[in-house]
Amino acid sequence: MSFLSQETFEASTLAGVEETTAPGAGAAASSRNNGDFADLLEKLNEKRTTAREDCLRELIAGLRSYTFVDQAIANRESVFSSLVGLLRRSRETEGVLCAEALGMMMLLIGPEEDEIFNLVRAPLEFVITRGQSERTRIEATRTLALGSFICNTEEERTLAHLAFFEALFTGESEGGRASEELKAAGVDAWSLLFTVAPRGYNTHESRALLLENFLPLLDASSADLRVAAGEAIALLREHWRQEGLAVHDVSADEEEVVDSIVDRLQDMAREGSKRMSRKDKKAQRASFREICSAVVDGQHPEEVISYRTRSFRLTSWVKMKQVEALRDCLQGGFLTALAQNTVIHDIFDLDPTAFDVPVERSVVAKNSELGRWRTTTRSRNRRSREKAKHHFTEEGEDA
User: Fold this and answer.
1) Cα separation, 267 vs 339, whole angstroms
2) What is the CA 13 to chain-centroid distance, rounded?
3) Which residue range or ranges hold the Interferon-related developmental regulator N-terminal domain (predicted)?
4) Whole-angstrom Cα distance, residue 86 to residue 84?
């Protein structure tokens, strides 16, 4: 991958905390996980939709907690084939879960996987443009962008997807109408791929067109869409600064749209719509103060990510958008993946030895996503057994 900014993700390492695993626990856990994963793959073919949805939830939880990572990678052809098959014919909830699982799988298998990516690309594109479920279209948009970012190595494909997402949030996409929530996902997807865009994509001649695409989105009713558009503009501004171009170093054709954007960003950094709650107004002002500082003054964003005794500092919009996409995919498993996922280490140029964390886990924490799922499932199964037992007892008494 080629990134717009290289030295923008800094790590400071403190004293590590040593952890141990009981002798033989790793092998036992691995054997148990192999059996559990084989059962999961088989359950993906269940006839009942609710059974498949439960199976997908367990698969996603296991991938995010790194319980099934080795098994998923070893059986990746079967996993991808099953997920794509389900995605093609799924309804809303199942479709969302399929897209989430596909995103996790592509993050796990890593870069230079064009064959796998091409297997999932067309079904995801179809769901985004032709799907009936809005939630599934949004999740498929995030998954397609992440897959292109992680697995794709073809520059032409990256350019095609930049155009695909641009058409989505400008209203020129094929198929169904895009809601503001879907457009926000499209802007974020475009921003993620822009961080690895081939040189020459963002030419001086195309700058005005890019800015004109985002200007009307700043007046959208959706706060997510307004913020996504503002962050995309900040990302463009950061890139132009790195290329030695100031915001006002523009042609006559661009000057008007640049002035309009700066004025609008400054307004949004000071006030909010009367229809917004006080909390939403405060959040918008905070977001756009940061965006405005980047666009007008060239200031860098900053966020510190802490993991146990270690902290990592993000200092660019490029890295902020990349981490945002990873968080959307990993959710509660983000810090686990940060410590163990070599793809993430490569993206941010991290030293894997800085993380003193055992890869194999003999026990699933009760408060983890997988632990909560297992507790809920056990409770549901227990109620079903008690109900069946009670029904059998009543029939015996009647007889």
Assistant:
1) 41
2) 26
3) 26-295
4) 5
Tell me which H or E stretch contains 93. Answer: helix 92-109
| Residue 297: both structure tokens together | 């003054």
Q: Is there a domain that residue 182 lies in?
A: yes
Which comes out higher in pLDDT, residue 399 or 178? 178
342 and 352 Cβ atoms separated by less than 8 Å: yes
> Which residues constitute the domain of residue 171?
27-196+320-343+352-363
Q: How many other β-carbons are positioned within 10 Å of the β-carbon of residue 364?
A: 18
Looking up tokens 């073919």 gives 45
Residue 135's pLDDT band, with cuts at 50, 70 and 90, is very high
Determine, yes or no, domain membership for 391. no
Instruction: Yes or no: say if 254 and 208 are a contact pair by the CB < 8 Å rule.
Output: yes
Our count of domains for the chain comes to 1
- The amino acid sitting at 32 is R
Residue 307 lies in a domain: no
Residue 10 is assigned to a structural domain of this protein: no
CATH number at residue 75: 1.25.10
C-alpha angle 306/308/312, rounded to 5°? 30
Each residue's pLDDT tens digit, 242-301: 876 555 555 666 677 778 888 998 888 887 666 677 777 888 888 899 999 888 888 889
Token representation of residue 241: 């600064």
Residue 15 pLDDT level (bands cut at 50, 70, 90): very low
